[in-house]
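Quick one: structure tokens for this chain, please?
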Amino acid sequence: MNRLFQHVANRLGTFLHTLTSSGHTRPKRIRGDTLKQHVLIPAAVLCLLAAGCGTQVEKYQGQTSRDDVENMGLNNEVTMEDENPRSVNKVGHTWGLKQDRELIKTAAQQLEGVAVKRVIMEADQVWVTVDIAGEEDMSEAERQEWKDQVGEAVYKAVPRYDIHVKIK
């Protein structure tokens, strides 16, 4: 980029020198091609570079300013209290593995006849082991239907996990 500016500046300087030479001779008459090569093209390049570098057009969707970032999560009141439930001083009360585990148990047990035996969580995977009343008499299709129902109920409660349901 620097070399381009130097080249354009040298060309423009040479051109201006030929126009304003202080000798006894008259300045050279410029043909259309020379004018285009020495003035118009470098001027157009400079305009394009100036327009593309550092000019900020209207804000587009998703753009945030420094003020937006500094004030993120703060109330508009004078108290400056955080309203973000995932802030550091609220860990363990509003979010976390413990809360997710409770949500999973509650969601699965809302189905009639379902008792949650175990919930295993690892990264984005959840394995839920449930006990269903009358499971001994169920066909494989009925067991699969119960697995799907429990999985869907858990997914509605915590959609960020891949859910695997096992009936014991």
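The chain has five helices and three strands.
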